[in-house]
Fold this sequence. Notes:
This protein is mainly alpha-helical. It is about 55% helix and about 10% strand. The radius of gyration is 22 Å and the shape is elongated.
Amino acid sequence: MNHDELTYRANKCYAADVVREKVSEYIDFAFYLLENKIDSENIFILAGLSESEKDDARHYFERVLDELKIKIEKSKADYFYICYLFDGVKAGKLSAFDAVYDLEKLYCQTQKKIFQEWLDLSYEIDFLYDDTVLIDQRYTLTRENAEAYVLRRFELFKIFYDLDLPEDFYEQAYCQKCGRRVIPKNVVKGLFKKKYLTICPKCKGDSFTWCFDNAGKELYLREIGFSERDSELANNIEDFD
């Protein structure tokens, strides 16, 4: 165990409290420290608290942070809450669908942009209950593989969070005809029987891989030469299981 791992775990605990008042994560953090032979009077006290003792849990968690010289990135609480849900899904503590629905509720409550893509994904998941198959170009989304698809969405979110993206990135798509990344253009054809189309402004193609989908994000990583294997953030996903 290293200091970076402890910092990552502590930030997730703080995020769970700030977003959902789950102070039980502070207590679990204390038990995790004790299991790894890191102890102190404050850690023992924190481990002995109940979930109802919210103020005490916060107080002793801060004391433990001071002892371990851990800094909480309070401005990134929303990001670390998403990490908290992702790791919970990977550990089997909650379903991928429940994690997405939780983030959907957060978007409806806060209107924060960081949660918006989970609102869109929740709509797609809802259709699966009617045996609808959804196409995300490289992915055929069904009830059988939806959880794996959602986990990949979480992985890509963690990578994309620190990337310097174009401001209109989520309006862009890769044209399947010419391969360019463009903002598709809406056009109307026909005088009496109108036909509404979305076309590529470069080659007039009408099939796209949208950048907000998993496949579109993966194409963008390939375009910019980004290697997930060499990414410190991607490595952290594996290291902190």
